[in-house]
Amino acid sequence: MTASMISLDSSASAKTSDNRLTNAKSGSCKSSSCGSTAKPDDMDPVTWEKIKDHPCYSEEAHHYFARMHVAVAPACNIQCNYCNRKYDCANESRPGVVSEKLTPEQALRKVISVANEVPQLSVVGIAGPGDACYDWNRTKATFEKVAAEIPDIKLCISTNGLALPDHVDELASMNVDHVTITINMVDPQIGARIYPWVFYNHRRYTGIEGAEILHKRQMLGLEMLAARGILVKVNSVMIPGVNDEHLIEVNRWVKERGAFLHNVMPLISDPAHGTYYGLTGQRAPRAIELKVLQGRLQNGAKLMRHCRQCRADAVGLLGEDRGKEFTLDHIPDAASYDERNRAAYREVVARERGNHAAAKSEAIEMVKAAGPDGSLHVAVATKGGGRINEHFGHAKEFQIYEASPTGIAFVGHRKVEQYCRGGWGDDATLDSVIVALEGIDIVLCAKIGDCPKKRLADAGIRAMDCYTYEYIETAISVVYAAEFGVDPLTGTA
Amino acid sequence: MAFKIIASQCTQCGACEFECPSGAIELKGENYVIDPKKCTECEGAFDTQQCASVCPVPKTCVPA
Ligand code: SF4
Ligand code: SF4
Ligand code: SF4
Ligand code: SF4
Q1: What is the pTM of this model?
Q2: Who among B11, B13, B50 is closest to A202 (CB)?
Q3: Is the CB of B56 less than 8 angstroms away from the CB of A85?
Q4: DSSP per-residue letters across A251-301
Q5: Nearest CA in chain B to A137
Q6: How far apart are CA B32 and CA A147, in angstroms?
């Protein structure tokens, strides 16, 4: 229990970069781990280099780095039954929805403003609405402008795959080293229930014929990317009764063709969104169904569990969306990039994540040593940095960890309505938070009031705020050891 | 003969603009519009009208 107490939170919000460096230096640093990286043992160094600062590709990086999406490519060449491209609403939060479509010039201005204000920024992505590969001229112009101004930023696209094979070479030459393809089927019979039509070679194809074309192009694109060493994440939308069982086969196919990560996301269907699925009553999967399916896919391509299904103009760390702060009317007309904030932050992170990795493996060893039959579900309130540093009442989501004899694993996140607004909490909201925390044994947060603490206890959930600023895994291991009756010190040798 | 865009339906995605073989579609202010003098209904270029085939909203690119 000697985790250093510097807070990345304070470094990220420090006003000047000098300040930030001082903050970082004042923290204690374990000489044994300083400068080490957190590369998992089973990953080759080239791949690690590509993903280590990418919040969506590395579970570890999502604690430290932020992404932003720019919506520059609204045209699309297929129709998905879960998408209604007519619908856009400022209160809506789901992928593909965006309030402001940008020209490449406006996108550059936005990226520069965010890079100046959000030092955690490491990735700029184009993720709908529309298809980045189909609407290629705008995608390309945006990437070229951003790369010219901020060369170290990672560029990332999401695509339905239909036009992807036409642009793989250009993607490779622009140093795009991450591509997300949404693949919901490998059987066109099933595809026909998801895609009413595709537009290809100047024609609209419907039904199985359309799905067949899409399938072939997706597989071709995936293989071409893998052959060039570009990392591919496959997103699949889980649609109960349509492709849920089938995703096991999808997982096998994409893994065989070199996909690096497979991310299964729940269908979002609400009649109010006006999508085909929303209007026909197609239901979304329940959280437990998604978890069971993910469990069955575990042996295929590596699974991603930290996707937040972000809006197409999301800005910030995963789990937060500061997009509203950076709409066009909030950013300067002419912004120039100042690299100091990002450079200083990266230095802090390089040091900090070494410490975090060491603390994490120590904690995992401790849990493993604690005995054969414990199991604990822990919900953590965090603002990032891998630490417990968010108040219970301010959390908009909890990160969920499972501690068991196999170690400590991040298993997902649960969104909640923020309970405390301006100093007072509202009972109905607290009720909804408690429902969202179903099955959780312990909540770890930076602070919690007596009243919500008691309400949680009545629901069988213990909330603790005595591990503020600790690393998440360290705190979990201590709680776990106490729970299952072992002396924490035996595990730390 | 020419096609036209029903402005109230259009999402401004711009797909029709870059599919049109005649360069007949342009963003004018807030709306995409088809120049009837340039539109050929894709005659001689493609079997189907490209704007209508790519448009995500039914009955938005229609005969004028
Ligand atoms: S590919 Fe994206 S933009 Fe196109 S229809 Fe599907 S979800 Fe909508
Ligand atoms: S939608 Fe998922 S993969 Fe894309 S930026 Fe958000 S978390 Fe990452
Ligand atoms: S019908 Fe053909 S030529 Fe006329 S506007 Fe549409 S795409 Fe252009
Ligand atoms: S394709 Fe349809 S929705 Fe898109 S800009 Fe043209 S008319 Fe509007």
Answers
A1: 0.78
A2: B50
A3: yes
A4: HHHHHHTT-SEEEEEE----GGGT-HHHHHTPPPPPHHHHHHHHHHHTTSS
A5: B18
A6: 31
Query: Atom 7 (ligand 3): residue with closest C-alpha?
Result: B20
- How far is residue A398's CA from residue A410's CA, in Å, rounded to a whole number? 11
Q: How many residues does chain B have?
A: 64
Q: Which residues of B touch A129 (CB under 8 A)?
A: 13
- Non-local (6+) Cβ contacts of A21 within 8 A are A344, A347, A348
Q: Which two tokens stand for residue A263?
A: 């991310």
Tell me which of A146 and A86 has the higher pLDDT. Answer: A146
Token reading at A318: 């995963």
Residue A208 pLDDT > 90: yes
**pLDDT per residue as tens digits for the range A23-78:** 333 333 333 333 334 566 667 777 777 777 777 767 777 777 888 888 898 899 99
Longest pairwise C-alpha distance within chain A:
69
Residue from B5, B38, B42, B48 to probe ligand 3 pocket by mutation (most atoms less than 8 Å from CB): B42
3-state DSSP assignment of residue A130: coil
Helix (H) or strand (E) holding A456: helix A450-458
Band the pLDDT of A210: cuts 50, 70, 90: very high
Query: What is the distance in angstroms between the CA of the first residue and the CA of the last residue of chain B?
Result: 7
Give the Å distance between the CA of A105 and the centre of ligand 4: 22
Tell me what ipTM this predicted complex has: 0.96
Closest listed residue to residue A246, CA positions, set A301, A184, A311: A184
Task: Give CA–CA dist A218/A282, Å, rounded.
Answer: 25
Among B4, B8, B12, B59, the mutation site with the greatest number of ligand 4 atoms within 8 A of its Cβ is: B12
Q: Does B6 touch chain A (CB under 8 A)?
A: no
Q: Which residue has the higher pLDDT, B42 or A1?
A: B42
| pLDDT at residue A492 greater than cutoff 70 | no
First to last CA, chain A: 12
Tell me which residue has its CA closest to atom 2 in ligand 1. Answer: A130
Alpha-carbon span A164 to A158, nearest angstrom:
10
Taking residues A81-95, what's their average pLDDT?
A: 64
Average pLDDT, chain A: 81
Q: Do B13 and A199 touch (CB under 8 A)?
A: no
Q: Hey, are the CB atoms on B14 and A134 less than 8 Å from each other? A: no
d(CA A351, CA A346): 9
Confidence check: pLDDT of A331 > 80: no
Token digits of residue A338: 């100042």
Q: Tell me the pLDDT tens digit for each residue of B30-59.
A: 899 999 999 999 999 999 999 999 999 999
Report how far residue B53's alpha carbon sits from residue B46's, in angstroms, rounded to the nearest whole number: 11
pLDDT by residue (tens digit) across A145-181?
999 998 888 898 989 999 999 999 999 999 888 899 9
Of all protein residues, the one whose alpha carbon is nearest to atom 6 of ligand 1 is A80
Helix (H) or strand (E) run with residue A157 in it: strand A154-159
